[in-house]
Amino acid sequence: MRPSTSGLTCCHSGSAIAYSAYTFPDTLVHTTFHDYYVALAVLNTIISTGLSCYSRFLEIQKPRLCKILRVLAFAYPYTWDSFPIFYRLFLFPGESAQNEACTYHQKHIAMTLLASFFYSAHLPERLAPGCFDYIGHSHQLFHVCVILATHMQMEAILLDKTLRKEWLLASSRPLSFLQITGAMLLCIIFSLINILYFSAALYRIPEPELHKKET
Length: 215
Description:
Elements: H1 3-23, H2 32-55, H3 63-91, H4 101-121, H5 138-163, H6 165-171, H7 177-202, H8 207-214
Helix pairs in contact: 1-2, 1-3, 1-5, 1-7, 2-3, 2-7, 3-4, 4-5
């Protein structure tokens, strides 16, 4: 199992912590959803890592299901993390939806959707096999879009932190250092357990099937 899987899924928890602190809509602050938002994001990270690892075992027998699980492993924690942003931009815009950060939030969502498209559609190499093996492959475009999306996300969070500072200090209840550290440690520990478990499971695969998977 690739360590990048754990890194990407832990990134979801980091996003949830930042969103909880700086970008939550005014009307959702101090609600039950806000109170359990980060805890459920951590749980999503653990489940997501397990799904991503498990999908590797289905590549030969059930490639379509493998692809669905792999996309789901990243799509559903992203959807959970981004729900406060969707709510703020599209469902119930309040004062917090009127600042400059919203433009970056919109660009972040657009780049994330574009990255998902390249990851799942395998374009343009499907249209011209062999022409995009080194430059222009969908996986390369996927990573470029993810980098741009991350940049837009960071700019949006920093702007929210700056523009909403006074309101946040007066109205919000930030997570403590121990809560943040505990959340990230749980993500790392359980994600590593997932990876070690599924890596060990590779040794239980019959030898001919393992060679077939490697080829």
